[in-house]
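Sequence in, structure out. Go.
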Amino acid sequence: MKNKLTRIGKRAAVTILTLIVVAGVGGSVAATLERTGDYPDWRRAWDDSNYSAGFSPVPADHAEAVVQAFAARTWGAKKVVAVHTWIAVKPAHASAYTVHEVIGWRKRRGLPVVVANERIPDRPWYGNQPTLLVDIRGEEATALIPLIEKAAVSYPWAADYTAWPGPNSNTFIAWIGREVPGLGLDLPSTAIGKDYVPLGSAFSSPSSGTGIQASLIGLAGVSIGKEQGLELNLLGLNVEIDLLDLAIELPGIGRIGRAEVDTANP
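Output:
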């Protein structure tokens, strides 16, 4: 029995490593295409500008403050392995949501990559449906909103963007998560760039703002904490074992097991 379990463990390890390598190569190719100018029409990102996935309450019908974070598969070859993430806030009695995110194409025009726009927060990204990562409302959201806004304006790479290994849109949301631990933000394994940190900050906290992370500019590392469990990173691709939520996350595939947010009743 012991030998059989050992063989199963070895096969599982080989399978996971193979997934990481394949996804890593795919991510590298996708990032190279982006750096060489193979960009989509950025206006397609908001083709469904009036569409809501049903996660975000309509401001006119919901006076309470709301904080929500989302992820959606990105465009082109990158969508096989990567998502784009963003965070939306609505203060109490506000008439609209403000969405904070990083838009990479702005760097080519010499513009800051960090943007804050009023828009429907849960609409698709390049036609890809969003997944709800965080949903906080009421007084708790009211207390978090100024902290989120402060973190957004203090993001240290507001003039920089590199698809892989970062800093990118996921690096930005991970930064907010570290600065505002009250969010309890656990970014998915497909959020490539979330583990990016400069060489001088190899030891920090993961995107949840709790626990500990060791990362070599987002290319290799390990993190452990309550929100994300045990997470291993190789070439920017992550494997997560979340024992508390009885779930695992794999490169390119994402989460398998219990969802962290009740998306059926956000």
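Check: Confidence is low (pLDDT under 50) at residues 23-39, 262-266. The chain has one domain: 2-257.
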